[in-house]
Amino acid sequence: MTQRTLALASDHGGIELKTLLAADLSGLGWRGLDLGTDGPASVDYPDFALKLARALKAGEADLGLLICGSGIGISIAANRHAHIRAALVHDGYGARMCRLHNDANVLVLGGRTIGPEVARDCLRVFLETPFEGGRHARRVAMLSEYGEK
Ligand code: RB5
């Protein structure tokens, strides 16, 4: 089986958590594609949401992880891109439901809002949970359809 790829990006408010989670990926059977930021300097989260959206569109990664301080700005930015379904999650329940029901292709976390172990749990659950399909596929299709209206 080919190894799947997770694209990761954050602003300065998420870099610590991004670094911590990137170290978990090989143990979870995933490859990481780190799109920055690379240091503590202040940067603009919409730029990193855009980089990740482009990587997913180009097929360079299967799923994405975005982190900013609260998770709010970068999730708003990511969801401006029509092919992105980004879910801001705070616990394992949210991580599971966003895959099962929403087919979320981007997990969003707040680097300043959740602790490292909860974040690790969110990532593991997100990567291991499949989309349930069925009636949820119809609703997810409606998201794209309504986005075009
Ligand atoms: C940066 O200070 C902070 O505003 C950003 O990381 C994020 O929380 C925005 O939503």
Task: Explain what the structure shows.
The chain is α/β, with parallel strands linked by helices and 149 residues long. It has one domain (4-148): 3-Layer(aba) Sandwich (Ribose 5-phosphate Isomerase B, Chain: A), CATH 3.40.1400.10. The chain is built from 6 helices and 5 strands. The chain has helices spanning 15-22, 45-57, 72-78, 92-100, 116-128, 135-147; strands at 4-10, 30-34, 63-68, 86-88, 106-110. The protein has a 5-stranded parallel beta sheet with strand order 2-1-3-5-4, with helices on both faces. α2 (45-57) packs across α3 (72-78) and α4 packs parallel to α5. The radius of gyration is 14 Å and the shape is globular. It binds D-ribose. D-ribose is lined by residues 11, 13, 45, 68-70, 72-73. Pfam families: LacAB_rpiB (PF02502). Keywords: Isomerase. It comes from Magnetospirillum molischianum DSM 120.
Bound molecules: D-ribose
Q: SSE order in H/E notation?
A: EHEHEHEHEHH
Distance between termini? Answer: 39 Å
Strand content: 15-25%
CATH evolutionary superfamily: Sugar-phosphate isomerase, RpiB/LacA/LacB
| Secondary structure: helix percent | 40-55%
Shape: globular
CATH class identity:
Alpha Beta
CATH topology: Ribose 5-phosphate Isomerase B, Chain: A
Strand order of the largest sheet: 2-1-3-5-4
Oligomeric state as shown: single chain
Unreliable stretches covering 5 or more consecutive residues: none
Question: Could you give a short account of the major beta sheet?
Answer: 5 strands, parallel
Using the CA coordinates, give the radius of gyration: 14 Å
